[in-house]
Amino acid sequence: MPQSLSLLIVHLVFSTKDRLPLIGPSVREALHAYLAGVVRNMGCECFRVGGTADHVHLAVRLSRTVMVADLVEGLKSPSSKWMKGQSPELHAFAWQRGYGAFSVGPADKEALLDYINTQEEHHRTRSFQEEFRGFLCKYNIEYDERYVWD
User: Please, which pLDDT band fits residue 146 given cuts at 50, 70 and 90?
Assistant: First the structure.
C-alpha cells in the first residue's frame, strides 16, 4: 500500500501538580486555546480541550507520525512555562508527572466531546481522583495507587 492512513482518537487527561486549583476562570479559556494550538502545531487535530481548576481533558486525533508520549511532553512543558508567565501567583505552576491516555472509537467521539464540555457540572459531585480511577477501571488498567498521584 503506497499510502499510510490512520484514525486514532485519544482522550488525554492530566492534572496540576498535587491537584492544586491553579487553572482559574481568568486563565482557563486562554490555556485551553493554547493547548489546542500546541496540538495543531504538532500536526494533530484537537477536537476539544476542557477541564476544571485542577486538570484538563483533551480529545485529539493523533497524526500517524506522533506518539502519545511526545504529544504529552509537547503539551506540558510549553504550557507550564506559558502559565507561569500569566500571573505572579502562577510562578510555581506545574503539571503532574503522569497522564492518562485512552483510546476512543469514532462512534464514541461525540460522547467524549459532550463529556469534556460538561466538566464543571461533572465535578460538582466527583473529584479528579475519583474520575481518573473511574477511567482506569473502565479501561481495565491495573495500577498501584501509590504511584498514580503526585
Answer: confident
Q: Quick one: which of 59, 18, 60 has its CA closest to 148?
A: 18
Domains of the chain: 8-147 (3.30.70.1290)
pTM: 0.94
Residue 4 has pLDDT above 70, yes or no: yes
Contacts (Cβ under 8 Å, ≥6 apart) of 123:
52, 131
CB-CB contact of 133 with 145 (8 Å): no
The answer to whether residues 47 and 61 touch, using CB atoms and an 8 Å cutoff, is: yes
SS3 assignment, position 123: coil
Name which of 95, 104, 43 is nearest 71 in CA terms.
Answer: 43
